[in-house]
Design goal:
Layout: H1 2-15, H2 28-31, H3 37-42, H4 51-72, E1 79-82, H5 87-92, E2 106-110, H6 119-130, E3 139-144, E4 147-152, E5 165-170, E6 180-183
Parallel strand pairs: 3-5
Antiparallel strand pairs: 1-2, 2-4, 3-4, 5-6
Bound molecules: zinc ion (ZN).
Length: 184
């Protein structure tokens, strides 16, 4: 029965993300999730070192094309602008320390600059979640500064999200206004 205990242990460690993963050997669509213009410009490393984050990013890489397909059906210029952020990079962009980006569980999308109201994007994602096209997120936020759509998920190993929360951000932080999220 020893082999059974060893197997159970190996499965447990794999699920906990405790098995070492060589980030450089992961597929390009996964490695693309930590490519960061901010990190490059500031000489910071954005390489995820936590195996749990790497496991989540490998999952996120399977979700991203589904979100892009939904958005590009209506906004062909839609693109993903941000995914993983190492703590130093997250601080450099003024991200919350508890940001799901720093956990390897969030994606940001824009159209490259011409749209400032992302509530229609939020509605498109909500419809796709209800249709089962996109896994239910933890939070979807139409952000105002800079304008983009933020989507954050719970670690899929922690169970499905039954009630995603959809927010619109009120208050332009660039003008010193307080950020407030309102449920939409
Ligand atoms: Zn975000």
């Amino acid at each position: 029965m020893v082999w059974l205990a060893v197997l159970a242990g190996a499965i447990y460690l794999l699920h906990r993300g405790a098995v070492m993963v060589d980030a450089d050997k992961l597929p390009p669509e996964v490695r693309d999730l930590w490519r960061s213009a901010t990190a490059k410009a500031r000489g910071l490393s954005n390489l995820p070192t936590d195996p749990v984050h790497l496991r989540r990013l490998a999952w996120l890489a399977t979700v991203e094309p589904r979100v892009l397909a939904v958005l590009r059906a209506r906004w062909p210029q839609a693109r993903r602008t941000s995914a993983y952020r190492a703590p130093s990079v997250n601080a450099a962009v003024d991200g919350s320390p508890s940001s799901l980006h720093a956990q390897g569980l969030a994606l940001d999308f824009t159209d490259g600059g011409s749209t400032s109201d992302f509530r229609p994007w939020l509605d498109a994602v909500r419809d796709a979640v209800r249709a089962g096209v996109i896994p239910a997120p933890l939070e979807v936020i139409a952000e105002s500064n800079p304008p983009h759509l933020h989507i954050g998920w719970r670690d899929p190993l922690e169970g499905a999200v039954s009630a995603p929360r959809y927010f619109s951000e009120i208050g332009d932080r660039s003008r010193g206004e307080r950020r407030k999220l309102v449920v939409v």
